[in-house]
Amino acid sequence: MTKSVFVTLAGHTNAGKSSLLNAIIGEKIASVSPKPQTTRTRITGIKTVGETQMVFMDTPGLHKPTTKLSGHMLKAVKDAVADIDAVLFVQDCTKPLSEQEEELLRSLEKAKTPTILVLNKIDLCSDKSKLMATIARLNAAHPFSATVPVSVTEADGIDLVEQEVMALAQPAPHYFPDEKFTDQPERVLAAEMIREKILNLLRDEVPHGIAVSIERMKERDDKDLLDIDATIYCERESHKGILIGKNGTMLRKIATLARKDLERFFYIQVNLQCWVKVKEDWRNKEGLIHNFGLDNPE
Ligand SMILES: Nc1nc2c(ncn2[C@@H]2O[C@H](COP(=O)(O)OP(=O)(O)OP(=O)(O)O)[C@@H](O)[C@H]2O)c(=O)[nH]1
User: Fold this and answer.
1) Of 36, 77, 136, 149, which has the fewest CB atoms closer than 10 Å, so is most exposed?
2) How far is the CA of 222 from the centre of ligand 1 (A)?
3) Residue 62, annotated ligand binder?
4) d(CA 175, CA 45)
5) Best mutation site among 32, 58, 93, 148 for ligand 1, i.e. most ligand atoms within 8 A of its Cβ?
6) Where is the stretch described as G3 (predicted)?
7) Which CATH number fits domain 3-171: 2.60.40.10, 3.40.50.300, 3.40.1790.10, 3.30.1330.10?
């Protein structure tokens, strides 16, 4: 009999939600970077093991909204935890719970949503008695259905998280083909891969003021080559200069790293062309947010 389970990953920004999702799925479908708020939209990962299909939704990290875009991101979290079977609540074991996380946990408790505590980054916690105390404290405050200490970067405990999720599956059809691992359109994945490189290569305020739009993505008829044209939007003329770099070196670096990732992902040689354009203050303009597909329609 086939079974399915829908799970949302939630937790504070930078806790390691996207890293965990990529580790479970075994493919890089969500952007990972040390900068908070890397994840902007919902990304669905799908994994089918035998009769059981697990469907995961990654959410933007919880934080205090400061721009219209962050308002949309917080709404995405609230929508993603409504109407699902379980929540993987990812918490950095070296950090205390924030006000936003406490609020989310209270609403999950009220809705009686099974919530698995995934205590991540245990590689950073050498004092195991401290870790046990943290687990005891969090479990005393919230009725988690299970607690799994993990280190995503060291691939420690990921299989246990998967087992806990599988145990929550209910008899149901598989909603996606068994071989599929994401429902994200290829263009969205390609844009995310390029954006991840920018987040990793550039510091300060430039990275969060960028959006990537894939203008063209087409396989050549006559050879195994995928042409991708991407526009990187930034908020200021000065940011454009940083993104392009001296003699175009930064843009070339971004494009080279992104191309390698894209080729690995799509199993085809990629010809990637990137352009940089300025769209002032796009994060506070509803129309532009909609254009980039970053809003959440009602
Ligand atoms: N030391 C350590 N670092 C980790 C671990 N898991 C993730 N990280 C790092 O933590 C940072 C944030 O990881 P992400 O997966 O982007 O976190 P996120 O929760 O999706 O972040 P947002 O998109 O901002 O919500 C990255 O630099 C990861 O490499 C871990 O187990 N140990």
Assistant:
1) 136
2) 41
3) yes
4) 12
5) 32
6) 58-61
7) 3.40.50.300
